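Subject: design request, 207 residues
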């Protein structure tokens, strides 16, 4: 949902504690938001809201998370989580809630953890019609600035997987690859993991 339209969906509040203007949102404001099934994120002081995702979106999230989990568990690499789960990127986002994240073994959160502080080792965002700018530009910049080593943008509409990698001692992502159809998707962070791009998208219905 576009930032300028968000205030219209927020519940009324008293004059003493009004909702802040975009650019001034804090984590304390976030904690006042209703638990209404929407996904709320604050990036650079701007509140973003996502409605319930579509079938195609959730199909891809589950497929990718399953492939990650099987590989990560088999090789004892760490942990795979899916939204909703709060990730705090100091000075950048508090919170972000990636669709899928991988955290390496030496940084695995302890049981009972509610928030992960710092940059996950790999983040995946699956595009929805209303999240194109957020995932491709806003979050791209936030994850890059935070030092997330690998960022996947998955598009159920075009059946494509675009992977960006952050080289060591570099402030900018480089394109690791864009994969479609039967092309093999490969990760640098999860070295050895591979699958055909088509494997993670809902099959097209024959007309």
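Subject: RE: design request

Done. Sequence follows.
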């Amino acid at each position: 949902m576009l930032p300028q339209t968000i205030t219209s969906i927020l519940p009324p509040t008293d004059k003493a504690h009004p909702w802040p203007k975009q650019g001034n949102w804090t984590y304390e404001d976030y904690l006042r938001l209703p638990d209404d099934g929407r996904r709320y994120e604050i990036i650079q002081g701007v509140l973003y809201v996502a409605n319930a995702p579509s079938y195609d979106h959730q199909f891809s999230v589950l497929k990718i998370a399953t492939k990650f989990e099987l590989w990560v568990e088999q090789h004892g690499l760490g942990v795979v989580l899916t939204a909703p789960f709060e990730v705090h990127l100091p000075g950048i986002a508090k919170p972000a809630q990636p669709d899928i994240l991988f955290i390496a073994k030496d940084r695995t959160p302890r049981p009972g953890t509610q928030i992960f502080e710092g940059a996950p080792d790999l983040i995946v965002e699956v595009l929805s019609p209303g999240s194109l700018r957020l995932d491709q530009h806003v979050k791209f910049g936030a994850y890059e600035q935070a030092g997330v080593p690998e960022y996947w943008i998955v598009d159920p509409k075009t059946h494509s997987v675009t992977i960006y990698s952050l080289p060591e001692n570099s402030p900018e992502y480089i394109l690791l690859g864009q994969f479609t159809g039967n092309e093999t998707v490969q990760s640098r962070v999860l070295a050895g993991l591979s699958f055909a791009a088509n494997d993670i998208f809902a099959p097209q219905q024959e007309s």
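The chain has a mean pLDDT of 93.
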